[in-house]
Design brief:
Blueprint lengths: L2 H20 L5 H24 L6 H12 L7 H19 L10 H20 L10 E3 L13 E3 L7
Antiparallel strand pairs: 1-2
Helix pairs in contact: 1-2, 1-5, 2-3, 2-4, 2-5, 3-4
Length: 161
Protein backbone atom coordinates (compact mmCIF):
# COMPACT_ATOMS: atom_id res chain seq x y z
CA UNK A 1 0.00 0.00 0.00
CA UNK A 2 1.30 3.44 -0.93
CA UNK A 3 1.90 5.87 1.96
CA UNK A 4 -0.68 8.31 0.59
CA UNK A 5 -3.24 5.52 0.41
CA UNK A 6 -2.61 4.73 4.07
CA UNK A 7 -3.03 8.42 4.86
CA UNK A 8 -6.40 8.55 3.08
CA UNK A 9 -7.56 5.43 4.94
CA UNK A 10 -6.42 6.88 8.25
CA UNK A 11 -8.34 10.06 7.49
CA UNK A 12 -11.40 8.00 6.56
CA UNK A 13 -11.25 6.16 9.89
CA UNK A 14 -10.73 9.38 11.85
CA UNK A 15 -13.65 11.01 10.08
CA UNK A 16 -15.81 7.96 10.78
CA UNK A 17 -14.89 8.17 14.48
CA UNK A 18 -15.84 11.85 14.40
CA UNK A 19 -19.20 10.96 12.83
CA UNK A 20 -19.83 8.37 15.53
CA UNK A 21 -19.03 10.90 18.25
CA UNK A 22 -21.20 13.59 16.66
CA UNK A 23 -24.07 11.08 16.37
CA UNK A 24 -24.32 11.12 20.16
CA UNK A 25 -25.37 14.78 19.93
CA UNK A 26 -28.61 16.13 18.47
CA UNK A 27 -26.81 16.93 15.20
CA UNK A 28 -27.76 14.16 12.74
CA UNK A 29 -27.10 16.38 9.72
CA UNK A 30 -23.49 16.89 10.83
CA UNK A 31 -23.01 13.19 11.63
CA UNK A 32 -24.41 12.21 8.21
CA UNK A 33 -22.12 14.68 6.47
CA UNK A 34 -19.10 13.24 8.28
CA UNK A 35 -20.20 9.71 7.30
CA UNK A 36 -20.13 10.82 3.67
CA UNK A 37 -16.65 12.27 4.09
CA UNK A 38 -15.44 9.06 5.71
CA UNK A 39 -16.56 7.04 2.66
CA UNK A 40 -15.27 9.78 0.35
CA UNK A 41 -11.77 9.52 1.87
CA UNK A 42 -11.83 5.73 1.58
CA UNK A 43 -12.79 6.10 -2.08
CA UNK A 44 -9.89 8.52 -2.53
CA UNK A 45 -7.59 5.90 -1.00
CA UNK A 46 -8.83 3.32 -3.48
CA UNK A 47 -8.41 5.70 -6.41
CA UNK A 48 -4.92 6.76 -5.38
CA UNK A 49 -3.77 3.19 -4.82
CA UNK A 50 -4.94 2.17 -8.30
CA UNK A 51 -4.04 5.26 -10.31
CA UNK A 52 -1.55 7.33 -8.32
CA UNK A 53 -3.86 10.30 -8.92
CA UNK A 54 -6.18 12.36 -6.77
CA UNK A 55 -9.66 13.27 -8.00
CA UNK A 56 -10.31 16.99 -7.49
CA UNK A 57 -14.11 17.06 -7.19
CA UNK A 58 -16.81 15.10 -5.39
CA UNK A 59 -18.23 14.02 -8.73
CA UNK A 60 -14.77 13.02 -9.91
CA UNK A 61 -14.25 10.81 -6.86
CA UNK A 62 -17.65 9.15 -7.29
CA UNK A 63 -17.23 8.49 -11.01
CA UNK A 64 -13.60 7.36 -10.81
CA UNK A 65 -14.34 5.09 -7.85
CA UNK A 66 -17.29 3.57 -9.72
CA UNK A 67 -15.13 3.02 -12.80
CA UNK A 68 -12.35 1.33 -10.85
CA UNK A 69 -14.58 -0.63 -8.46
CA UNK A 70 -16.42 -2.15 -11.42
CA UNK A 71 -13.32 -4.30 -11.97
CA UNK A 72 -13.12 -5.39 -8.31
CA UNK A 73 -15.47 -8.31 -7.61
CA UNK A 74 -15.07 -7.97 -3.84
CA UNK A 75 -16.66 -4.51 -3.81
CA UNK A 76 -20.44 -4.69 -3.74
CA UNK A 77 -22.10 -2.35 -6.24
CA UNK A 78 -24.32 -1.09 -3.42
CA UNK A 79 -21.24 0.55 -1.89
CA UNK A 80 -20.61 2.45 -5.10
CA UNK A 81 -24.20 3.67 -4.99
CA UNK A 82 -23.78 4.56 -1.31
CA UNK A 83 -21.18 7.16 -2.22
CA UNK A 84 -23.76 8.95 -4.38
CA UNK A 85 -26.56 8.52 -1.85
CA UNK A 86 -24.38 9.76 1.01
CA UNK A 87 -23.44 12.76 -1.12
CA UNK A 88 -27.13 13.64 -1.17
CA UNK A 89 -27.10 13.63 2.63
CA UNK A 90 -24.08 15.93 2.56
CA UNK A 91 -25.81 18.24 0.09
CA UNK A 92 -28.95 18.29 2.21
CA UNK A 93 -26.89 19.04 5.33
CA UNK A 94 -24.96 21.80 3.57
CA UNK A 95 -27.57 23.41 1.35
CA UNK A 96 -31.06 22.25 2.37
CA UNK A 97 -33.20 25.18 3.46
CA UNK A 98 -36.85 25.99 3.88
CA UNK A 99 -39.89 23.80 4.36
CA UNK A 100 -39.16 21.62 1.32
CA UNK A 101 -35.79 20.47 2.67
CA UNK A 102 -36.31 17.14 4.41
CA UNK A 103 -34.39 17.07 7.71
CA UNK A 104 -31.86 14.31 8.18
CA UNK A 105 -32.96 12.02 10.98
CA UNK A 106 -30.82 10.33 13.60
CA UNK A 107 -31.74 6.96 12.05
CA UNK A 108 -30.55 8.11 8.63
CA UNK A 109 -27.29 9.38 10.11
CA UNK A 110 -26.79 6.09 12.00
CA UNK A 111 -27.40 4.07 8.83
CA UNK A 112 -24.96 6.26 6.88
CA UNK A 113 -22.33 5.89 9.60
CA UNK A 114 -22.73 2.11 9.68
CA UNK A 115 -22.49 1.84 5.90
CA UNK A 116 -19.51 4.20 5.78
CA UNK A 117 -17.77 1.91 8.27
CA UNK A 118 -18.42 -1.11 6.06
CA UNK A 119 -17.29 0.92 3.04
CA UNK A 120 -13.95 1.76 4.69
CA UNK A 121 -13.31 -1.80 5.80
CA UNK A 122 -14.25 -3.17 2.39
CA UNK A 123 -11.74 -0.82 0.75
CA UNK A 124 -9.07 -1.76 3.29
CA UNK A 125 -9.74 -5.48 2.70
CA UNK A 126 -9.58 -5.07 -1.07
CA UNK A 127 -5.77 -5.02 -0.80
CA UNK A 128 -5.65 -8.18 1.26
CA UNK A 129 -6.47 -11.72 0.27
CA UNK A 130 -8.43 -12.53 3.43
CA UNK A 131 -12.10 -13.10 2.65
CA UNK A 132 -14.76 -11.11 4.40
CA UNK A 133 -17.10 -12.91 6.72
CA UNK A 134 -19.31 -10.05 7.79
CA UNK A 135 -19.91 -7.73 4.86
CA UNK A 136 -23.29 -6.08 4.59
CA UNK A 137 -24.90 -4.09 1.90
CA UNK A 138 -27.15 -1.10 2.46
CA UNK A 139 -30.78 -1.33 1.45
CA UNK A 140 -31.88 2.13 0.43
CA UNK A 141 -35.48 3.06 -0.21
CA UNK A 142 -37.03 6.10 -1.76
CA UNK A 143 -38.74 7.24 1.44
CA UNK A 144 -37.73 10.81 0.63
CA UNK A 145 -36.05 11.95 -2.58
CA UNK A 146 -32.30 11.60 -2.28
CA UNK A 147 -32.41 10.51 1.36
CA UNK A 148 -31.57 6.93 2.32
CA UNK A 149 -33.73 4.84 4.58
CA UNK A 150 -32.25 3.13 7.60
CA UNK A 151 -32.73 -0.52 6.69
CA UNK A 152 -29.56 -2.57 6.33
CA UNK A 153 -29.53 -6.15 5.12
CA UNK A 154 -26.79 -8.77 5.04
CA UNK A 155 -24.99 -9.27 1.75
CA UNK A 156 -26.18 -12.18 -0.35
CA UNK A 157 -22.60 -13.35 -0.72
CA UNK A 158 -20.63 -12.96 2.52
CA UNK A 159 -17.38 -12.93 0.53
CA UNK A 160 -18.33 -9.65 -1.09
CA UNK A 161 -18.23 -6.36 0.78
Amino acid sequence: MKPETADYLAKARTTLADAQQIATLPLPHVAAREAYYAAFNAAEAYIFEHTGKVATTHRGVRSEFARLARREPSIDRELTRFLATAYQLKATADYGIGPTAAPITADQAAAAIATAGRFIECIARSWHSRPSTSCFRPAWSNSAPGVPSTSIRPAANPGIC
